[in-house]
Amino acid sequence: xxxxxxxxxxVEAVHLGGHRRQGQIVEVCGREGGEPFRVHWLDDGxxxxxxxxxxxxxxxxxxxxxxxxxxxxxxx
Length: 76
What we know:
mainly beta, five-stranded antiparallel beta sheet, disordered C terminus, DUF1918, DUF1918 domain-containing protein
């Protein structure tokens, strides 16, 4: 997977009842846009080093229907 800072990662739920995670890439740590990525997650506000798996896809802009309706700011 190749990405740039500002791109969004969407991790689909693997198990029934699981939730989808959305996070914005704040740093590309691999060579030539490759993984791992430092990601700011919308659901808990944490920033983690992330190696995407087969359940992850990339979005250049987070689609409106995926945005969480939360009362806190998600700005970095």
